[in-house]
């Protein structure tokens, strides 16, 4: 893991923070994931559980596919940026296990941010249900196979739940650092730090 390149040192004697670009990537991702998880459950509940397959359900599915597809490419770009530019050195007061734990969690989040939308895309290719708002179709990644589609979309759903649980742990850790440990971890990723 490259460390220590993509840092911005702020103010006199202040610890380095993530670059504006890294922070932009982070907060756009947060907004997208916060929309995608409830949207996924809402559309699936309306369609599969309530059995309502109208224009609203279709629009919910289309939005989910479109935002998820864009998030996949955003994550790919973010990962390239991260691998090329690295991250600021760890907050200096952290224990070794806090550094190890946060790195593990961050890379697990990156992995799921790639795998979850990719499985969604493979799932709708297999179904097939590639149309977005009746305007255009996503490029297919596999030929039709409805049984496989259901299996892939079930795994997609479970991994999305895992992603949501890891995000909760990540937010819990950020709040722990800010409120209880009162160190500089949260500040490193705040959008407003110049
Ligand atoms: C990070 C991005 C994504 C997240 C967090 C996410 C999350 C979810 C969640 C929480 C569900 C509901 C699962 C359930 O009901 O058990 C779901 C369902 C679904 N997702 Fe995604 N999703 C993402 C990306 C995508 C993409 C890119 C596509 C397709 C291009 C997609 C297609 C679907 C489909 C078709 C379903 C419904 C499955 C069904 O009707 O049973 N998702 N997603
Ligand atoms: C969908 C929600 C979120 C996802 C997927 C996510 C993902 C990530 C990832 C992948 C990193 C590692 C950055 C890197 O080193 O390349 C990171 C860092 C960070 N995130 Fe999040 N994040 C989310 C929400 C949040 C929220 C809501 C907060 C604040 C309450 C937050 C605070 C932070 C902080 C402070 C760091 C830097 C940690 C450090 O200095 O090592 N994140 N996040």
From TrEMBL:
Q: Does the keyword Transport apply?
A: yes
Where does the sequence pass through the membrane? Answer: 25-46, 66-84, 104-133, 153-180
| Primary localisation category | membrane
What topology does the record note for this protein and the membrane? Multi-pass membrane protein
One Pfam family it belongs to? Ni_hydr_CYTB
Highest taxon in the source lineage:
Bacteria
Keywords from UniProt, A to Z, are: Cell membrane, Electron transport, Heme, Iron, Membrane, Metal-binding, Transmembrane, Transmembrane helix, Transport
Write out the annotated subcellular location: Cell membrane
Q: Where is the Cytochrome b561 bacterial/Ni-hydrogenase domain?
A: 17-191
Q: Does the keyword RNA-binding feature in the UniProt annotation?
A: no
For activity, the cofactor(s) needed are:
heme b
What family is reported?
A: Belongs to the cytochrome b561 family.
What is this protein identified as?
Answer: Cytochrome b
